[in-house]
Amino acid sequence: MSEKYIYGFNEGNAGMKALLGGKGANLAEMVRSGLPVPPGFVITTEVCLKYLKDPKILDTIWDGVKSSVSALEKDTGKKFNDKGNPLLVSVRSGAPISMPGMMETILNLGLNDDTVEGLAAASGNRRFAFDSYRRFIQMFSSVVDEVDSGKFEHVLEACKKKLKLSFDNEIPAEELEKIVAEFKKIYKESTGADFPTNPWEQLRKAIEAVFKSWNIPRAVTYRKINKIADDLGTAVNIVSMIFGNLGDDCGTGVCFTRNPSDGTNKLYGEFLINAQGEDVVAGIRTPIHIDELGKVMPDIYKELCKLTSQLEKSYKEMQDIEFTIERGKLYLLQTRTGKRTAAAAVKIATDMVSEGLIDEKTAVSRVAPEQVEQLLHRQIDKNAKKDVLAVGLPASPGAGVGMLVFDADEAEAWEKDGKKVILARPETCPDDIHGLFAADAVVTSRGGMTSHAAVVARGMGKPAVCGCEEITIDLDAETLTARGRIFKKGDVVTVDGTTGTVLAGEAPLVEATFGDDFQKILKWSDEIARQQVWANADTPEDARRAREFGAKGIGLCRTEHMFMATDRLPVVQELIVADTLEERLAALGKLKVMQKQDFVDIFKAMDGFPVIVRLLDPPLHEFMPKEPIILDGLAELEKKGQGKSEEALRLQKTLAKVRQLHEANPMLGFRGCRLGMVYPEIYEMQIEAIFEAVADLTARGVAVRPEVMIPLVGTKPEMKFFREMTDRLAAEVAKKTGVKFDYLVGTMIELPRAALVADQLAEYAQFFSFGTNDLTQTTFGYSRDDAEGKFLFQYVEKGVFKENPFSELDRDGVGALMKIGVEKGRSVDKKLSVGICGEHGGNPASIAFCCSIDMNYVSCSPFRVPVARVAAAHAALGALK
Amino acid sequence: MSEKYIYGFNEGNAGMKALLGGKGANLAEMVRSGLPVPPGFVITTEVCLKYLKDPKILDTIWDGVKSSVSALEKDTGKKFNDKGNPLLVSVRSGAPISMPGMMETILNLGLNDDTVEGLAAASGNRRFAFDSYRRFIQMFSSVVDEVDSGKFEHVLEACKKKLKLSFDNEIPAEELEKIVAEFKKIYKESTGADFPTNPWEQLRKAIEAVFKSWNIPRAVTYRKINKIADDLGTAVNIVSMIFGNLGDDCGTGVCFTRNPSDGTNKLYGEFLINAQGEDVVAGIRTPIHIDELGKVMPDIYKELCKLTSQLEKSYKEMQDIEFTIERGKLYLLQTRTGKRTAAAAVKIATDMVSEGLIDEKTAVSRVAPEQVEQLLHRQIDKNAKKDVLAVGLPASPGAGVGMLVFDADEAEAWEKDGKKVILARPETCPDDIHGLFAADAVVTSRGGMTSHAAVVARGMGKPAVCGCEEITIDLDAETLTARGRIFKKGDVVTVDGTTGTVLAGEAPLVEATFGDDFQKILKWSDEIARQQVWANADTPEDARRAREFGAKGIGLCRTEHMFMATDRLPVVQELIVADTLEERLAALGKLKVMQKQDFVDIFKAMDGFPVIVRLLDPPLHEFMPKEPIILDGLAELEKKGQGKSEEALRLQKTLAKVRQLHEANPMLGFRGCRLGMVYPEIYEMQIEAIFEAVADLTARGVAVRPEVMIPLVGTKPEMKFFREMTDRLAAEVAKKTGVKFDYLVGTMIELPRAALVADQLAEYAQFFSFGTNDLTQTTFGYSRDDAEGKFLFQYVEKGVFKENPFSELDRDGVGALMKIGVEKGRSVDKKLSVGICGEHGGNPASIAFCCSIDMNYVSCSPFRVPVARVAAAHAALGALK
Lengths: 881, 881
Fold this sequence. Notes:
homodimer, eight-stranded parallel barrel, elongated
């Protein structure tokens, strides 16, 4: 056999994770660094992969295993299968990428009726020896032969009951001997064979079990979820057993080189005297804070501090370390990168830069964009008790507490009275905006991650749980019912939008962490990133917030929300119901004054930064009252004998219009620039308002960089028409005001066809902004209003998607179109500015994709700007695939 | 000047159309063939293009014009600008592609106060000379200087009134002299200048006017509509005038070498003695049948027959010829390919093959696929008087006569009573299917070319006028109102779906022409075509009809129509309302028996040909009663005190389900294979039914070639899931029945994403069928239900589209996706069978595209199969771009 399939710990290093697995490579590295590690060796991942194809490989390597065991015997002075001073080993899996708890481990291997006596003699502790033996039988039977663990537990329980004991560790040695006999009986009954007494046979079966555990369902699922390749395989670590449970000069523990909660640079962890690793986890005894170790074993503590600090310096990363003390000697059993909270990640990364351990790029790469979100919202205190009322979709992160209210007007009124409110609705619509604004958080029983409530809440940075189908909301009774409990208006609940949970009562919240360290990370991120981050903002307040969060422009300023304001809606409705161009122009005249002021305010807030204003997009019926409301109004008038009154006629006209505007599929209907083609006067009004605002501000010394964006363009003639319209009106305003100003005209790319004919559009469009919400809908043929409630989550569950394509950009389909769009657009105009303004612009994986196709910027809701800044840096670092 | 800008007729030939224009090249060809053509010359299209950029080119060529005129003088023995025997010329446009009537012509050029006297003397006819003079002034003023022609007509009218004359040609010479003076005055008043007396100045201005006429709006529009390039330019033909109005030995006429109405091989046309060409067209005197020429001028007639026959032989195509007889001498003034009806096209093409004039490919290329449609439907007699009631969209061709009925049930009942009925509805829905089936034709006041009524009617080959917004239908009063006229139930109307016209009363119809000649054309087409033509057919009757029309397979057999049948709908509704899998399986069990029989019948009808069965596609709510109907039912029960009855409970459950199934955008919702993912048992039932039918028939010796098509697939996991489901069920049925059979599993490509990931789908799909109706909707983001009523026709009007993309495939967008889909699919499976089953499969231009991307077949409604067969042949011939 020419290849090397087995490595002693003294033969490897940290760089060999692919071959030796993470655990094996790290143990080898520790040996290299002279750290006290129990002797052991590794069977490589290659053997695993070969084994899974053909188990005969084990015959080939068996001599190697035997000589490696001999080496262990030499190192430890013990002998495998020896009655005198037996060598026991642990057999553990160790994959190249950590899959904690997914695969198998067997401890104390090497025990049988003979060697257990040797162990008893050598340890001077018969109880310990037989306890180790029964643990081994239990573990081996379950892992190797899939014997139900419950059968063994049953025996233990019966014994404790008989002896009136509370804990396993109170069972005396002689009882344990009986238990071992019973365990072996269980094994025989379950498998039809005697429990293997030959340690070599035990070892071979254990190795095989670890190899096979690569493909057990929970491991396969874990890899699928965590996007780990299936062809890596696991290594097997065979390590001589160290015992922390031989007496009070023994112990075991786990520690982090820094505090994983807040990042403080001080050893953090816990330990138990006279215990095995299992016991720390099992929670039978309460572990002791690591600081106490300094009191009970000061030398060991000092050594631990020194060694772990050495490890951290060597790895230049915070370490999570397992250690065991056997008869006053410290052993390190494992080291790995420590998991940490977002706050800790930020502090550790910036501290390590200050300490000269890592550079700024590495610091940024250590803060996951996904984690950043945690820093931006209030959260429920992790330690709080939770009275879960119902669970829905985590639609908008953060937590809010308040009194239940079922109506937007009431939410607004209560909020004005200084109350904190939670708005609960079956679903929300644009009419509820003021209620959403007033509420501390939102709950809906219907709708998905991209339902109206979810989108608006995320835009506002407001916690929301949506599509909470466990909940029934009775708007008439003003009650919320879930899991058999009824909550009335005014009852206090807590909404945890981060997890999608609704809690009864007030849960304690912790504030967002957005300190100097994080600002450093953001600053470094901007220096690293090749893409700017812009924000979607419709109001001056949003624009200011976006700027505070570091946005370098506004990628999407929607004008329809301006149309929705209470004082404007009647004028908008006048406009829609108008029969003639003249009537329309009269209504538009009134709107223009207001629109102009909107733009003045937003442009001022973004002084010096570009602002992309999107012209009117939604179908007109969204601005109209719903049919039942009009019918109710008419019925009322009829009752009062006013069925022929002017008001009644107005309502009838409105009704006719609403019916005329009705569409089977409004998403694919009369909206976007189609409105501007049929009623050019509407777009003309908006464009004039923009340029008049620009001229005013330019004259007053504000640096305005307006970009006019035409929505839903799908053809070249549309783009040409609106480019010419915009240029004409800009020239007119410039002439009228005598002010010179610059501007751009561009389009959303939100239809497959727009991407496919992007070269044609780029003849007239000066910039593209990918509207990936709509582009995802049309590319997949999914209406997000329908799909998420009806089948999309089932699709995610059935594995059709790894991620909901409305959350994470679909690279193969939507992404392919985007790539085509960017390439075709730039084939005509090399310098064409390209960005994204769909919600994906705030999703790290999607940002990585946008960066990979050379976009100029990503635009997202103001609250996600910091996430996007870090994500853009990660993309530049190639840290995200 | 090195290039040749001017060609004498004796210098060109028929191949020089690009340079000399169609008219000039044909005249030159006639001269080449020794035919009697008046002497003349051509200024090339190149000069026109240069002139439009810089008019100075005329200076450069002017010497050439002069020497060409000299040549004419030599040929005719007359002299330009000569008092004795003046040469007069016509100046005519002549573009490379015929644009009849679009550009300018001036006759009798060369006349002034001096030459008119020469003409009078030479012709011995003073009246003739001054009539020619006044005609010239009128034409020249209008064409060259845009003087309003009405001013001249006004003078003529006044004169006739004064002299109490009825016709222009009754005005005596002396009055014409006065009129000439008045005409010159009008010219001076309108232009501020004297009428040009110098014939050279006249000629130069006339040439310029012809060049400029290339860009007059009507010409530009004509080119746009007919897809003629703008950079061709027009040639100018300058021809010595020949006069057919010098006396009774003169005359003029138009003839076709064969009958353009029915194709009979005999000279066809009409003529006038002592007349100019204008007079034939003007309709002042009724022209005489060409046969009469044989009696009045037997020699001339014989010569004409000989010459025209010679022309036809030379062009190998039916010719449309203008001729003039001047003092007993025959001149041919123009020849061009003659326009003809579809019936004539077929007869002429097949006759010419029999005569050995052309080969079969040429014959097929002479029958336009668009014309074929005329042959397949009854039409209103062209000569009938039409009492137009309203005009809408020509939704489905052909004509039908019957009594107005406003309800589908009634339509069915009346039809059973032997009455012919016309179903008139505001719009139709699947519930109206039986009414559509019973009716002779359909009229709807709402909906577009792809509305339900239009699609179903085209599928059934039934005439339909849709979106006829002039019409108001009052379903309660059972009246149809249009243009102030009210029609009641039972009133007879005629529907002309070919033109989109509805007529009052019974118009005479002519039957479809589908004779032996046409069968020859179809046979030759199949031999030429590289693509097969399949049909979309849902019933055995459709399948049989498709076969009769020459379909080589069924490209789309929809199963939902089977679900709609009156006896099945209640079972389908049971299925939908079911709460549990068991209830669903029970309902499915009942449906399966019926489905199996459906498939047995269709497979039998298509013995030997492939049949693609599409699994259930539409959203479930389409099978449910509408909400108002359920509410009415409930109210009724309530009234009867049966509000708690079993029926009421059932209705309430149905209502709840209908509301649950409601979708904001059903087009993008829970339909297609999404149903099959969430309720696999539905698809399993259908697949089993298919294979059980296959096994039965295979055992009985029928050659069944089933292909199972999964609708609305957008992702690889979907395709994988259904491929595996189908394979598993096929194996089960084969095992159960002991019958071996072949089958294919494939998918519709009807979502942009499906095209973009076609390589992934092709791993599991064995064929692709492009569903271009839905693909067009999602690619453009147009809901066809909404777009056609709301903005699409405005878009066509405004020139955003040349054609409605639901009628003619959009090559740049939808076509680009199709190309991607075919290429990606075949990159995985070279032999992947690809077809189209959208309505575009019956549209000639779209078929040409499908052929260009190497599809295997196109599938269309049975009635369009002959159209598609010819179109596929044309595509192969490259006759369509």
